[in-house]
Design goal:
The protein has four helices and nine strands; from the N terminus they run βαββαβαβββββα. The chain has helices at about 20-35, 55, 75-95, 160-179; strands spanning about 10-20, 40, 45, 60-70, 105-110, 115-120, 130, 135-145, 145-150. The model has no long low-confidence stretch (mean pLDDT about 95).
């Protein structure tokens, strides 16, 4: 029988994308209000690897990630996903003038030394149910000193630019484990 061990906390990562700078600023403000200091902020990336979101979000989407300074219990991910869904609805309600049904998309997850896990409301063959209508998937994983992808990895998460940012996040996490 395997021994049950206490799990280390993980690095909370929140990604958001939309057409406007104000959408990203809103998400950043909500993140700071909810969880405090941000440890790492990615560049603003062009989110142009897919047109899947164009009907509901429009074109010329920009995406950004934030990694929190305070680590989280991985079991909190369903609660965090519900909260970020609420932020999406709040922003959409306040910004009906953006002429899109969904002006911002917010995706929370966590990073460990081995993987980046994203939360979702959609069930698929490679996703595991967590709780309260929320599923999770390992989006990328770290193996032999680099990030690797799977057949289901979203196209944007396959880019070297994202991998560089998540490597910085992984290094930050490892520093927290040494303290």
């Amino acid at each position: 029988m395997g021994e049950i061990r206490t799990q280390r906390n993980a690095l909370l990562i929140v990604g958001a994308f939309g057409q406007s700078d104000s959408a990203l600023a809103f998400v950043r403000s909500q993140i700071e209000s909810q969880w405090g200091e941000i440890a790492l902020t990615s560049p603003v990336y062009n989110f142009d690897q897919t047109t899947y979101y164009s009907p509901s979000m429009g074109a010329d989407l920009k995406k950004q990630f934030w990694a929190m300074k305070t680590l989280i219990d991985k079991a909190e991910l369903p609660k965090i996903k519900h909260l970020t869904n609420d932020w999406e609805a709040e922003y959409a309600d306040k910004n009906k003038n953006e002429h899109v049904a969904r002006p911002v998309n917010v995706d929370p997850g966590y990073l460990t030394e081995a993987k980046l896990v994203l939360a979702t409301t959609k069930d698929r063959d490679h996703r595991l149910y967590l709780a309260d209508g929320i599923f999770a998937e390992v989006t990328i994983y770290f193996h032999r000193q680099q990030w690797r992808t799977s057949r289901w990895t979203y196209p944007d998460f396959q880019t070297p630019e994202y991998h560089a940012f998540f490597s910085d996040c992984r290094n930050f996490l490892r520093e927290q484990y040494q303290d």
